[in-house]
Amino acid sequence: MLKLYQFRRTWGIPNLSPFCCKVETYLRMADIPYEIKTALPLGAPKGKLPYIEDNGAAIGDSHFIVDYLKTHYTDLDRELTAAELASSTAMQRLLEEHLFWAALYSRWQYTEENWQINKQAIFGSLPPVIRDIAASRTRKKIQRQIHGHGTGRHQPEEIFALGQQDIDALAVALGDQPYFFGSNPTTLDASAFGLLINIIGCPIESPLKEHGLSKQNLVQYVERIKQRYFDSNQQQETSEISNEH
Predict the structure, then answer these.
(1) Pairing mode, strands 57-60 and 51-54
(2) pTM (2 d.p.)
(3) Please, where are the H alpha helices in the chain?
(4) HSE of 41 in the Cβ direction (CA atoms, 13 Å)?
(5) Contacts of 189 (CB under 8 A, 6+ apart)
(6) Inter-residue contact 34 to 4 (CB < 8 Å)
(7) What's residue 243's pLDDT?
(8) 187 within 8 A of 92, measured Cβ to Cβ
(9) Side-chain half-sphere exposure of 199, counting CA atoms within 13 A
(10) In what order do the strands lie in the sheet with 3-6?
(11) CB 50 within 8 A of CB 62
(12) Cα–Cα distance between 197 and 15 in angstroms, integer?
């Protein structure tokens, strides 16, 4: 069975990583059987989570994982037109290459309170001495990445203003549809759900979260997907978390 390696569940959401959540949501939307292996990024392909193992292959990075799932299992985008596929790609880039960085900033740099919540969620299972060293080193690494990307060079109000514009665009694009391209979920929905629930559905407070919560259609969208694909007892029973690493 396909194995999905990702962070342990916390905060009452599928995963604290938007990209882990994206992959698991795709698996559930496509009804692909899988087994979860809780893990940390150490030793993972490309040094990050999520990654999957399937038929002897290990694939890292959510984009390439989804490409693999489309080729070897089910393509959720098979009914989309060329124009819709282009829009899907553009919106995923907005989510994963722009809005994501504002969300990342809110966790790792914006306030000390947010950092302590984030630290406990990611590193809390480690022994205290190892936990503090690993958390400190990782935080510095992430902050360098945020600065290198360019987001960290802005003032907080500028960072969140850019993120709020992204949220506005998502709210308009979704409108009153159940999913971004109508009545059926696609890859874009897996990506959007993974990031939006990590903005509005977790205990990390910021102007970005407040703005997301003001968009009623996005709030309902996130809750609808969570209820359909993650709150069902049947889904939980068929995707039991393993404590193996």
Answers:
(1) antiparallel
(2) 0.93
(3) 18-29, 62-72, 82-94, 100-108, 112-123, 128-149, 156-174, 187-200, 207-213, 216-229, 233-238
(4) 14
(5) 25, 29, 179, 180, 225
(6) yes
(7) 37
(8) yes
(9) 32
(10) 57-60, 51-54, 3-6, 35-38, 241-242
(11) yes
(12) 9
Sorted by where each begins, the domain ranges of the chain are 3-242
CA-based nearest residue to 217, from 179, 162, 163, 190: 179
Ramachandran area for residue 55 (φ above 0: left; ψ -120 to 50: alpha; else beta): left
List Cβ neighbours of 105 (8 Å cut-off, separation of 6 or more): 146, 151, 152, 156, 159
More confident residue, 223 or 243: 223
Structure token digits, residue 149:
């990307």
Amino acid, res. 29: M
Beta-strand pair 3-6/241-242: unpaired
What would the pLDDT profile of 113-160 be if each residue is shown by its tens digit?
Answer: 999 999 999 999 899 889 999 999 999 999 999 999 999 999 999 999
- pLDDT cut 90: percent of the chain above it: 91
Q: What is the DSSP letter of 96?
A: I
Which CATH number is 3-242's, of 3.90.550.10, 1.20.1050.10, 3.40.50.1010, 3.40.630.30? 1.20.1050.10
Instruction: Pull the structure tokens for residue 107.
Output: 């966790």
